[in-house]
Structures are given as C-alpha cells and as structure tokens.
C-alpha cells in the first residue's frame, strides 16, 4: 500500500481547514486506498526559515522529522486554507525550505474555505510554485467550500456521501499518478 502525507497548512486559532485534512485522511484509510498521516504545520510550529534545508548548519529535529516524513511519502496532498485569495505563509515557509525534495513528488491540491467560492486562485498559485520546483501536480483538484457547515472539527462531513463524491476524483487521480510514476 502506498504512503500519502497530507500537509495541513492552517495555523490559526480556531482553524477550520484542518477538518478537511482529517476528512481526507479518514477517507483514504477507511477505503483502504493508502496509508496516510497528516503533517500538521500548527503542531510543527516552525519558525520562519531563513535558509533552505540543504544550507542549514544545524536543522532542528522537528524539521528533520518533517522532511523525513515528506520524503518517505509516495504522494502528497496539500490542504490549503484560502488567505486573501492566496495561501498561508506557513505553507510558503515549508515549500521554500525544501527544493530538490519537490522534484518528481506527486502532489494533489485541495483548498478549504468558509466561502461558497472555490479557492481556485489559491490552488493555481501553489501549483505554479511547486511545479516550477519539479513537483508533478495532479490536474484534478478538490475544492472544499462552506467548511464551517460542511465539516465537523473531527473531520466528519455533515453529508459524508456528498463530500466523498466530491473528493474521490482528486484522490483517484493522485493514486493513479502515484502508481504510474512511482513504480
């Protein structure tokens, strides 16, 4: 079974986007699609990195743990909250601390917003950045909207069937890419 990591990007107090990460993790595990863990940027509580990992003289144990889990993953799902039509600085921080690690990393993108408007600009900005670094970004995205009413704090969807139907195309495409490109 393949290993997928989900990068949960919101570090705000009272954050709601993390519930989407929990939902996707549960979906992958409950359906025996992949082994899955969440790399929660709020738990890592990284400082603002002033240099890429390869140039750091003494990287922290937390950073080395993050990078180890990232590197072992066959695929990555980034669940990005929508911050002012873009993505959070916490995500930019962990994108920029790496470089070569993104090359040929299979990535799927999810935006999570309290709005009814999909986070299309957010997803495209992330895709532009990481694809320039060599990531293979799935063309199929999952846009979670109205997350305050659609997801509970523990990641359960208020309408599980509807949310799984919306997330399935992104998951299917990610797993197809992982299978085709990693073997």
The residue fraction in helices comes out at 40-55%
Number of domains: 1
Category from helices, strands and their pairing: alpha/beta
Q: For the record, what CATH class applies?
A: Alpha Beta
Order of helices and strands: EHEHHEHEHEEHH
pLDDT under 50 segments (min length 5)?
A: none
Q: Whole-number radius of gyration?
A: 15 Å
Anisotropy-based shape = globular
Mean pLDDT: 95
What assembly state would you assign to the polypeptide chains in this entry?
Answer: single chain
Descriptive report:
The chain has 183 residues and is an alpha/beta fold. It has a single domain (3-182), classed as 3-Layer(aba) Sandwich (Rossmann fold), CATH 3.40.50. It is built from seven helices and six strands. It has helices at 18-30, 41-44, 61-72, 89-96, 120-132, 147-150, 160-182; strands spanning 3-8, 35-40, 75-81, 106-112, 136-137, 142-144. Strands 1, 2, 3, 4, 5 and 6 form a six-stranded parallel β-sheet that branches. It starts with a strand and ends with a helix. The model has no long low-confidence stretch (mean pLDDT 95).
